[in-house]
Amino acid sequence: MALYGEDDMTSKTHGSRTARIAARGFLSTVAGFALLYGASAATGQAFAQITAADSEQAADQLSEREQSNTLSLEEIVVTGRPGGAGMKKLDASFAITTMNNDAINKFAPKSTADLLKAVPGVWAESSGGESGANIFVRGFPGAGDAEFVTIQVDGMPIFPPPTLSFLENSSLFRIDETVERMEALRGGPNPVFSNGQPGVTVNFIQKQGGPETEGILKLSGTDFGEKRVDVQMSGPLADDLFYSFGGFYRTSNGIRDAEFNSERGGQISANITKLFDNGQINVYTRFLDDRGAWLLPIPLLSDENGNIEEFPGFDRGTGNLIGNGNRLGVIETGRNGETRRLDLADGRGAETFMIGGSAEFEFDGGWTIREKFNYMSGDADTIGLVPANTPRTLGDILAGIDTNGVGGTFTFTESGEQITDLSQQALTAGMWSVEKDIESFTNDFSVAKDLFEGNTFTVGLYISDYSSNDLWFLGNDQLLAAEENARRIDLSLNDGTQVTRNGFIGAPFFDVNAAYNGRNIAAYFADEWQITPDLRIDAGFRIENQNVDATLENVDFGVDLDDDPTTLFNNNAAILNGSFRTINFDETETSWTIGANYNLNQDMAIFARVNNGQKFPQFDNLRDGADGIQSIDQYEVGLKASTDMVSVFATLFYNDFTGLPEQRFIDGENVVIISGSNAIGVEGEFVVRPFEGMSLALTGTWQDAEFDGKSVNDGNRVQRQPKLQLRFTPSYDIALPWGFATLYGTFTHVGDRFSDSENQQVLEDYQKLDAGVVMDVDNWTFQVTADNLTDSHGLTEGNPRVLGAQTGTAIFARPILGRSFRFSLSYNF
To answer: Any idea where the TonB-dependent receptor-like beta-barrel domain is (predicted)?
Structure first.
């Protein structure tokens, strides 16, 4: 990875990085196939016969559509199970949401995080674009990112730490036609299995091949100019060997038009499945190279009562500060003219290679062995335009800088045109550069034994090894006109003082050069006992050690980069100084869970569960000296039921959170206080089918989450999360002579929230309406979806860099994305 001090027009060379990833990927793929295939050579012939459903008749298709409008309690789920062993959803003693490929396509998510809006108990802010979402779970406290969310592929974490600064798990995965279904497990046995995530584990299960050759070719477009192609195909290579491959590519300027191709990239993935008499092996690989603009708060107006209005000339739904006038920049990173060239088109995304696999074999005597692994390597960089100071007139800006009253001149940087109207609104926004070179290997091996009739004991070993090499330059503020696709502005004072250079009014204020390495080793034990035909209990225990070591370069603050006080643009800078410090962390903790499920009849069950989980500090926590381990106790009771007319899955939950670090100034010193929070709530999924073809679905969460008595913010609501959120989706399937059609819509209500833990920045409640139609004719499918049909402008984030209430002034905040339409045409074969 390139460090500071390179040539002033040199940036990170993505081409050579791609070559390195591809080379490593090819070698890893060959090694993985050889390892798994060779290990199974003597095991036998076909494990199970895969059959394909006959879907050529319209009546059968309608029946399948009606079945998809249930909660699929007879479906087999594998997430949160020891070693990934399957179990009927009705028999599971935990809260889990499932969505198949058809349901995902109907939802038409704009990103991986956007899909999580369909999961009760989860609050997802996807207004930041394809990457960089904020995702919260069941009132767990957090300032942003996705601290309690793990994204899996086929039961293995993509990257074991749920969140690092500028990197949350959903940024590393893209949904396409290679996904068979999603499973989202909240709480439950999460603290014991996988990476021990106590919040939510979202498992994307890939399509595998079968005895019939089949596939899909899909072309999509939008009213804002996106073009996308998806392809997926699967079939047999031999009687007991099957393949599946697919991917996508897309390109656009984005809903918030950046004036250039800011959303671009794609993904390629493939897997092979080998069946045996007593088991199977699957190996997969995925290559992702996709990025998009990091969408951040925009200028808005807030009156004395906090009512939000549009900033003059800036559309709330489609406006973007990013544009051709500020796309490229050269930032100063150190003394002697050290610089870096940045391009906002690089945006926020990932360029990664992944290989993984699984094996499962059953043996005489009730023994089962399961093995899963995943290796991932690549880059997850961020180049973003981050708002700093809210809009003010140029006159106010000049008055704040020109303390001697000498006067000054404003000009547009690109054109050189002088600005004489000092009532022109302007703002500052930083060009932040964050480079992350990440790598991880995870492995989960388990052995299960049927001890006696109805009782299975499992012991497993989980190992993860992961690293992140970081290079950050935060700050680099620019003076911009307060307008869409903002132009840069230069200011020079009449006494010769240069306030800006090429529009830049500041240097980096925070730098990081760090190499982090982490390793987690956990042993877990689980026992399941079917005591009676209707009563099943399970328990699990995990003991885990985390070891982290890191080397970080020290930073000098308040440096004048050219020792010239008349060039204000590079005064008060932060620079890496060539000296280093180290971090070492080594701790062991335990987690546990106990649950029970009781079937009241063949269509209805109740369950109860209690667990205790831990959250180890991650790299950024340790860099900032926060090495405490947070503990979460969770309690759940739930009801599941499904009849011909009604399906219900409802869960009452309570959690108690301790070990939360909070900063407080006492007698002028920054003191860290360890506090906590608690939350009580109910989450549910309900489907009513009043007559053939019609379904009425309701998904919702009500929760009351607040900081406890030890907190600086005792009694305040946990920030960013609504008390109430609801999604109501009516859907009507119509059988037609030439096929069938589905009409559907979704009404979403999001309750009010607070952007800050001090509960001073109110984010008002809002409503949103989506709609769509799907038509199937023979092998063709045509779909139209309308997102935010009424062009709602609900806010998901205030300005996290400003403390206190934001009323009676121009502010920064991030509204949801404006109205858009997507059209797709698919050919299924």
So the answer is: 314-789
* pLDDT at position 64: 53
Specify if 381 maps to a domain.
yes
In 107-206 the beta strands, taken as DSSP E runs, fall at 122-125, 134-137, 149-153, 156-157, 163-164, 167-168, 179-186, 200-206
Q: How many CB atoms lie within 10 A of CB 235?
A: 14
4 occurs within a structural domain: no
Per DSSP bridges, beta strands 508-530 and 489-493 are unpaired
Query: Is 8 inside any structural domain?
Result: no
The C-alpha angle 198, 698, 682, rounded to 5 degrees, equals 40
Q: Which helix (H) or strand (E) holds 622?
A: helix 619-623
Q: Is the pLDDT reported for residue 59 higher than 60? A: no
Mean pLDDT of the chain: 89
Phi/psi for 707 (5° steps) reads -75, 145
| pTM flag (> 0.85) | yes
Question: Residue 696 contacts by C-beta under 8 Å, 6 or more apart in sequence?
Answer: 687, 688, 689, 690, 728, 729, 730, 731
Q: Which of 764, 765, 759, 763 is nearest to 803 (CA)?
A: 759
Tens digit of pLDDT for each residue in 194-241?
A: 999 999 999 999 999 999 999 999 999 999 999 999 999 999 999 999
| Dihedrals phi, psi of 399, to nearest 5 degrees | -65, -35
**CA–CA distance, 191 with 204 (Å, rounded to integer):** 19
* Look-up of token digits 């956007």: 114
Short-list 712, 751, 762, CA closest to 141: 712
Counting the structural domains of the chain, the total is 1
pLDDT tens, position by position, 208-217: 999 999 999 9
Is position 462 within any domain? yes
Domain that holds residue 609: 14-828
Put residue 284 in one of left, alpha, beta given phi > 0 → left and psi -120 to 50 → alpha: beta
552 is written with which tokens?
Answer: 């970080």
CA gap 590, 469 in Å, rounded = 29
CATH assignment of the domain containing 376: 2.40.170.20
Give the model's confidence band at 66: pLDDT under 50 very low, under 70 low, under 90 confident, else very high.
low
